[in-house]
Amino acid sequence: IDEIEALSSIYGEDWCVVDEDEKIYCIKINDCLDHPKWTLCLQVILPPGYPTAEPPIYQLNAPWLRGQDYVELANSLEEIYVQNLGESILYLWVEKIREVLIEKAQSSDPEPDIKKTSEEVDEGDGDDFLLDYQPVQEDPTKILNYITSESQEVDEELPSIHHGNPITDRRSTFQAHLAPVVTPRQVSR
């Protein structure tokens, strides 16, 4: 309880209580620049045994965080937990994530490549959103060839995932993720 109160006062509006009874919290972390390029949302669930016997259950949410970047950051958080067994670690996690974001901002990494597939439309009250949908024009023979070759290939390539910009509405953040699939196997993968 003391840790949650401290984090709430330290991080202010960036700290969000998702569900007080289930102890689910979310914090928006950025690279501390005037116009942040790199932002990440850390969602944590504090199990009954936290901090003495169980680690927090966490999820890292950012459209740019994939592959090796995700693995490295997750390993860093788990290492912090192991080094501080039995102690409150949420503050350490948030500051580690902020440190990674600052390093990315100061390095030569370009801004996150987020393909915008949805946009917020301001019509009066601002609660309406319009999905900017443009159907993909594919050659039907290409699709048919893909479907027939899919049954022959064991390691098929996953489709690219398009990420929309996060939209925040009343302390909730939403983000669309879309991928074109043509086989049931792609759906399950």
From TrEMBL:
GO cellular-component term (any): cytoplasm
Residue span, RWD domain: 2-104
InterPro entries to which the protein is assigned, alphabetical: Impact, RWD_dom, UBQ-conjugating_enzyme/RWD
GO biological process terms on file: GCN2-mediated signaling; regulation of translational initiation
Pfam families (alphabetical): RWD (PF05773)
Name of the featured protein: Protein IMPACT
Species this chain originates from: Tauraco erythrolophus
